[in-house]
Write the structure tokens for this entry.
Amino acid sequence: MSIPQDETARVKRAPKQARTLPDSWLCGLFLAPSGLILALMVFYPFFSLIYYSTLQFSMMRPRIEPVDVGLGNYVDLLNDNEIWQRFAFTGKFVLATVLIQFTIGLAVAYAFQRNFKGRDFLFTLALLPMMLCPIVVGFLWRYMFNSEWGVVNWLVSLVGIAKIDWLGRSENALWAVAVADAWTWTPFVILLATAAFRGIPKDIKESAEIDGASPMFTFFRVTLPMSLPILMIALLLRLIDAFKQYDLFLAMTGGGPASETQTAAFALGKIAFGYFHTGEASALAVILLIVIMGLSMIFVRYLTRLSNRV
Amino acid sequence: MAKVELDRLTVQFGDVAAVDGISLVLNQGEFIVLLGPSGCGKTTALRSIAGLQHASSGEIRFDGKPVTGLSPAKRNVAMVFQFVSLYPHLTVRQNVAFPLRAKGVSSHEIGKKIEWIAKVFAIGDILDRYPVGLPPGSRQKAALARAVVRDPDVLLLDEPLSAVDEQYREEMRWELRHLQKELGITTVHVTHDQREAMSLADRVVLMRAGRIVQVGPPAALFNDPADRFAAFFIGSPGMNFIDLTLATDGLHVAADQTLRVSAPNSVLECARAAGLNQIVLGIRPHMVELASEEGRGVLSAKLLDAALVGRDLQAQFALAGQAINVVLPPEAELRDERRLRLPPAHCLFFAPDGTRLGER
Amino acid sequence: MRRNAVLLPALIIGVYLVFSTGPIIWLMLSSIKDRQDLFAWPPTVFFRPVWTGYEAVFGVGSAQNTATAVGLYDSLVNSVVISGFGTMFAVVLGTLGGYATSRFRFPGHGDFMFFVLSTRMIPPVAVLVFYHMLYSRLHLTDTWLGLILVTTFINLGLATWIMKGFFDGVPTEVENIALVNGYSRLFAFRRLVLPIVSGGIAATAGFCFIVAWNEFAFSSILATTRAKTLPVKISSAMGATGIEWTQIFAAGVVLVVPVVIFFYLIRRYLLMGMTFGVLAKGPG
């Protein structure tokens, strides 16, 4: 990584500075605003969430006194088989969409490595799906996946297969929504992966070339392993977002048929704004958060270990 | 090991010829050093041999077969880079095995080769370490091991020692030379450090502005430089140059006509034939002697400065308005005024344009 | 061998572009289809365009909308102000925080980064109610300030993490040269380091702007009249009679135009940032 030449050339002996802040002050100054906002907007709600989860009440009926049930909400939720189903479905969905995103994303980033004419334009074009409003994306794919007149089934019929009921059956809907989600966020993976690949020192790539490694061999044995830190961060961010996915399910399946395509987040929305069991919803939110945080911690630990080596 | 030939190799970047029609023959097993200042084209030439740089014209041949159009992978060359030569995410062992795995060599074979190379390079103790924890010297040794393990035809080194600490560099140079002789691989080494070139090379190729200035064993470049640039570039401290005027009665110091200098007849004839009345005398600081009395080639000079550098006493004298560097044994006696003797045997003569006068 | 080396990448990019831009083209086409063409089988590509969708979005022509407290122009202004400032604050604070965490390895910096990341983990649904109550009490509902605050906090986690990654990729020698020569760290940060990570700042701004611009959940709950943002406005302006496909699609097209413009404006910084050692060392 080279230092811009003109910058360092201009750095001579500094003129008298009025007053320089010690590093620790500057650090505090830089962190304070963020810390403040996060504490107010996140810590505070989070703790109230925990507090609410120990109550049984409803936002819609403020006149009815909240009942303190301790961990009762949690017990009810964890004993409810339905909730476990929701989590299972969520897990499957997360796996599916992340799989698609990364397979396609890494392949495309691989293809964008070498410089060619119009690369910048095509690259910007590839970012388009990310820019759309998520609810619109949901409706768009609902339109395209419609079993009667959707264009997806038309393409499928070209290959000779009969019309598939995408959104009415949960096993298909899982993949349909996963495709929609992956479609939207693959550009994110492409962006970060491309950045990672381009950050690998030229000497290393040339070494591999001279060593006689084919482009594929180099990609899997050198490029990918060396990009692991960034890719892991991308994976972590995508996993977190996939767990939270709500808009797409709202637009595409509404959680149906019945409640088969409800993810945990969707179920949460239903309990909070459908049944208005605010206490129960809070408990579910806490459980969901614990799951997400647990996963993240594992990731971050692995990431730290990795980055110490590369 | 292969014989490498460069045949009028030219590499152009736009209008500029980084390498300008150079021709060179490297014999099997030879250790060649491409030496020169920044921008002289030595690295470009090296990368052309590797196949990383496309040649604008000319040909490169290994053992008589042209390789100019071939990709690096097909040329069977190996290269060690200046800074990052090892894959940071692999252990040394995995690094060394990498080129073998890329070619599909069996694990059994790989194991045997690693054992052998570990002995040759004495890297057995670091085989399972990661590059990040190793000192630069060990890292470059491992990089060399990886380069050599697949038996390349040519070994290319791009200033591999410049990132190594000064104190280890000397030791690494010895090891490098020793290993090269033992393995017998044709080696091309690029450097801007003339001391490194002189201690490593079988032959030195001195380059400047894309062209070859001189090719020859280190001693030849030191004692018999082709021109003034070569004379000054080699040797540290650099050669002293004194302007002379050529009169009918011989050579005088230009700044002080009373001082006279002698030169071989061949030089005088050369100069007169070229119609020159001004030439330049060159003498290395190590060759200037302190004289006790008058005599041939003895000139008076005033002492300007002196310092003990390493085991030598480096002094600077003013001779007819010009500064002359002299390297003396540490016990030499210095006074304000000394007589300096310029032994005719060690004097070299150049025309104003830099070309060498007289026989070589 | 060279020809094959080009074929595979070209194929991959070609197929992917069809996959990624196809639906977008379909979106644009479908936004001007009439009811017959929308549900036609096989799907039509050539048809007579109909603009009812866009008319509904803009509240003109055949769809003179009534139940709209805030006109399209006003909600556009709201969106621009809220997204603009929200993005700016998130990027600025994220840059400062990212720099502090990257350079000053204060005790607990790893935990701080995890805490920052955890702000991203909360599903909006879970805290919507709480926020509504909080904002009501603070009189922040339906205000620019209120929504800007929300927008900032939504994006702060991402901004901080991405910027820290970029700062990790800048060698400390850059500031050290200045510090050794007597310059303050603030100076070094402003004049030397920031230009290097300008690409990262652009990328972060891009991501944050997308999120801010398209944000729906919080906006729909916390700003229902004066500070209504564009996505909310458009969804409320659309008829409640079944799914008005063309209206939704038209809305989608209209909403994405400013985002594309934004990315076009920062494209130089974006592509430049992609060539540096981004996120070279990860966290810690």
Notes: The two ends of chain B are 33 Å apart (CA to CA).
